[in-house]
Amino acid sequence: MNVKDLLCLKNKVILVTGGSGNYGKCIVEGLAEADATVITTSRDIASAQKNADYFRQMGLDVHAMQADQGERESVKILKAQILEKFGRLDGFVNNAVSRPMKGYNAPIEQFEESMQVNATGMMDLLREMTDLIVQSGGGSVINIASMMGMFGPDLSNYEGTRNMGDLPPDYFFHNAGLINLNRYMVQMNAGKNIRFNCISPGGLFNNQPEAFLNNYYKKVPLRRMANQDDIKGLVVLLSSDAGAYINGENILMDGGLNA
Ligand SMILES: NC(=O)c1ccc[n+]([C@@H]2O[C@H](COP(=O)([O-])OP(=O)(O)OC[C@H]3O[C@@H](n4cnc5c(N)ncnc54)[C@H](O)[C@@H]3O)[C@@H](O)[C@H]2O)c1
Fold this sequence. Notes:
Blueprint: H1 3-7, E1 13-17, H2 22-33, E2 37-42, H3 45-57, E3 62-66, H4 72-86, E4 91-94, H5 108-135, E5 139-144, H6 169-188, E6 194-201, H7 210-219, H8 232-239, E7 250-253
Parallel strand pairs: 1-2, 1-4, 2-3, 4-5, 5-6, 6-7
Bound molecules: nicotinamide-adenine-dinucleotide.
């Protein structure tokens, strides 16, 4: 088969949670540009709709749905709405993240709040969407983790900055867990024509303070942070038939920072 056809996502319905967020927008755009029908979710339907409208104006097939990953009922409703509107699901990019905890000494209740969304709710959603993809005949799940789920914090990146560097423990904990949960999902769903892969990105450029950028750039062999295009090709590859034999991987996308 021609490689352009293998990479094409036409007729595939793919869900992206947190599609209005920083990496989420890039992921929605990349999948839709490869001709997928993309469902973008937010807790706030107005925000999801605004995001979908932005991409629809560009001629891309993007649809909005409301979903709160921390709420059992909301996950059930999302599943029912996808079935009702599209009758199938071929791909899921598990991208949403809640960041209630602001540092090492933040109240432990905020750790619990984080786990409700990033661990318990995330597992609920992952299992339900896996079920829907299997019912649809198979497909691809991409779990967006982080390089912070693979390595400890490099505090020297924050030297000379103000209010940066007090990194929250929940983020390291749930991202590390997700990377191994991805392998668990592969084995538990063997024989069902569904693939699970993780992407562990490095930092996305977001107008961070100059002192941070200078520290960071010195360590990245590519001398920059990730940009809006960097994750697009990888999510298309993993969602498409071009990635049909890639399963159970965790791909570190960090510009060589940890090489
Ligand atoms: N931005 C980075 O530099 C970076 C680096 C490495 C990994 N990541 C990973 O990329 C993914 C996206 O991160 P981001 O930086 O784009 O985050 P972001 O904060 O910009 O977006 C996260 C999205 O998740 C949504 N969300 C929060 N709580 C939710 C809930 N209860 N239910 C449903 N949605 C909820 C938010 O509304 C938001 O749209 C995450 O998995 C994160 O770990 C990001």
